[in-house]
Write a structure and sequence with these properties.
By secondary structure, this protein is of the alpha+beta class. The protein has ten helices and ten strands. The protein starts with 11 loop residues before the first strand and ends in a 6-residue tail after the last helix.
């Protein structure tokens, strides 16, 4: 919930529009056709999301017998159609199926639930045991995954540029974290507040992967979507928190355009004011703070970021400087004037974001 007593869900995808726009203009129909189809489907889902916001979504209740502090996951199969949620194929407590995509989605929902519960004491993405639903095999050659305000949806990719969107667990964690933001700070999805929305999903998506693998900050790759790009693509992932702008440099996709500091901030009217681009700046700040502190990134750096996201002081139209200032206050309040505070201060200074 927001400070105003409500939440405004938005339609959030893992693949930025500028990537699909570039693919849609490619001369090879095998690359252009799936991208155009994905853009058309995304536009329709975005409109549907807006209409749902206007008329109000149906309340989602926990099923009978659901226990507090336990996940309740349901995975559906769209069978390459677009009706949601589709056909139920695996529920909570069911044995794994013969479909690896279904099992990965189920596991990813669980990994996200575990990180939020065990690290931060949050019961599901709304804090009140919200059931976690996901649909796989959505549409044909669909090059995206999204959170639509109510559930997760995964495409299979086109096999040429993108593979199955359930492969990287951080993609699942990223999209579900949009739900956490929806139910807490409810950051507006435009400009710097939108870039913070995207960055928070990258931060906690990465932490979910690190938590699942038991990695320290030094051991983590700090990549978002590693394993999602098809073999023909020259790149390692969708984004890099360690080195924004280095995730790919490909003759089809072009070069990763994310900036790492305010010096290279991208002013644009596309992509909701560059929400997937400028998110590289707060992403890099988190990486710098987490690696300076060492150990498990979800513990101290992650705790500070979580405190700000859920603390009630983060305004819906927050700028980078507003968020940075709140992280400084949160670090001081939780840890005093020690190395945690210094790591946070230095991280924001290094990316050129001032703290008030």
């Amino acid at each position: 919930m927001t400070r105003n007593g409500g939440s405004e869900p938005v339609f959030c995808t893992i693949i930025p529009p500028h990537v699909l726009d570039r693919l849609a203009r490619h001369e090879d129909p095998a690359l252009a056709r799936p991208a155009r189809r994905t853009l058309e489907r995304d536009a329709l889902e975005r409109t549907r999301r807006r209409l749902t916001t206007v008329v109000g979504a149906a309340a989602v209740a926990s099923p009978p017998g659901a226990e507090a502090g336990k996940p309740h996951r349901t995975v559906y199969d769209a069978r390459h159609g677009t009706e949601l949620p589709g056909h139920k194929v695996r529920g909570e407590g069911d044995e794994p199926t013969a479909d690896a995509t279904v099992n990965r989605a189920h596991a990813g929902l669980g990994a996200t639930f575990d990180l939020y519960l065990k690290a931060y004491g949050r019961d599901s993405i709304d804090g009140s045991g919200l059931p976690l639903d996901a649909t796989v095999h959505y549409d044909r050659d669909y090059n995206n995954a999204f959170w639509n305000g109510e559930q997760m949806v995964f495409g299979d990719g086109d096999g040429e540029i993108f593979l199955d969107f359930t492969l990287p667990v951080d993609v699942i964690g990223h999209e579900l974290t949009h739900g956490v933001t929806q139910h807490s700070a409810n950051l507006a999805y435009f400009g710097q507040s939108g870039a913070l929305n995207e960055s928070l999903s990258d931060v906690f998506g990465s932490l979910i992967k690190q938590y699942t693998l038991g990695q320290t900050a030094a051991e983590a790759d700090w990549l978002i979507g590693a394993g999602l790009l098809a073999p023909r693509v020259t790149g390692t992932a969708l984004r890099s928190m360690k080195e924004p702008g280095s995730a790919y440099d490909d003759d089809v996709l072009g070069k990763d355009p994310q900036p790492s500091t305010m010096e290279d901030y991208v002013h644009t009217g596309s992509d909701n004011g560059g929400v997937h681009l400028n998110s590289g700046i707060p992403n890099h700040a988190f990486y710098l703070a987490a690696t300076a502190l060492g150990g498990h990134a979800w513990e101290r750096a992650g705790q500070v970021w979580y405190d700000v996201l859920t603390g009630g002081e983060l305004h819906e139209d927050a700028l980078f400087a507003d968020f940075a200032t709140l992280t400084v206050s949160a670090a001081r309040e939780r840890y005093g004037a020690g190395k945690e505070l210094q790591a946070v201060l230095k991280a924001w200074e290094q990316v050129g974001v001032r703290t008030l």
